[in-house]
Amino acid sequence: MATMETQSTDKRVDLSKLWPVGVFLAVIGLAGLVVLSGADKHHLWGSYIFGFVFWMSITLGCFGLSLLHHATRGSWSVSVLRLFESGGGWQSLLLMAALFLPIAFGGGHELYEWMHLDEVQKDPILQHKQGYLNETFWLGRIAFYFIIWIVWALIMRRSTIAQDESKDFRHEARRGSGGAAGLVMFFLTVTFALLDWVMSMNPHWYSTMYGAWLIVGSGYGALALVTAIVCHNAEKEPYRSIVSPYLTKDLGNMLFVLTMLWGYTTLSQFIIIWNGNIPETTTFYKVRSATYPPGMEGNYWAFVGFILIVGMFFIPFYSLITPRTKKVPSLLKKIAIWMFCMAIINIFLIVVPSVPERANLGPVNPSWLVTDILAFIGVGGAWLAIFSWMSTKAPLVPLYDTRLQEAKAHAH
Hints:
- About 75% of the residues lie in helices and about 0% in strands.
- It starts with a helix and ends with a helix.
- The model is unreliable at about 1-10 (pLDDT under 50).
- The chain is globular, with a radius of gyration of 22 Å.
- It has 17 helices and no strands.
- It is mostly helical and about 400 residues long.
């Protein structure tokens, strides 16, 4: 009897084991970043902003997809809702707010040209944008974003926990309205937040597709991560009771949709800028192109872009268009892990060349690449610790919604 109970326990998902791993990675990564950067603050913050933006994108991706679930009440997303709440819940958002503080009160002056008044006075474009791009207003906006995200996520989380306990459908009905309104709030605030964090590092450049492009990329990486977790634990409870070819097909179809959306927004931004042919809007592609500007010969950023075209679009596209890939959890897990890795490279290509003086060094500069990796590991370790801790605070599959269990029980 004891042996049977032990086997049953062994077959349950236990993400709490990742908590000490996350803490260890956070300490090692962030300490290593500080030590290797030394007195070079530009080096320190140039790598840190990459780690922060990537894990912020995963956090926002999880948060946005949880709002989509509440707005549409899709059955497929029940399987990953708790993972969305762990990765994009109020605790994760609070963590990312805390991790932003070093940038807000130290690193910003190393990253954002418009924070230097002497540079603003010499540049008519920066003077024109000074009403929006000034440090006080910038900090106020970002504080507002975090407050509204945290409060919204907290309300939604408490509602799902309350419904687990009471089984009262009224909670779900209210979340439907909150999710729909939340999606509007999400797209508006996240668009401006991404402009403030990333686009403003190149204050002379702008793109009307930028917010939608990065939001799609955030959802792409977040869904790939949680899909990999579900498929990896498909033989363990509670996922064993719900994982079926129908569920993995739905998860695969959503990954396919996000692949298509990423390709669409990426190509649309390029075509709009190419068609406009305005010098100040082409700078983003100029430093990432195969026709290198003087002083940037052979920087290989264009090779990274080629990797993304093939790896982030074509490989997932042709893999997920195949029915068998979406029906077999082990195959779907592999493509989901691949997509998550591509999401890392995508943020790397967007953020790193935007760091002042970094574009001309290329993507494989050894001293910078090491600190980039350490920043990724350090911020990611802290995120993983909160994610794993939050996963233990509620059942991994909501108790109030049994559609997936019923679908598997009645499947033929």
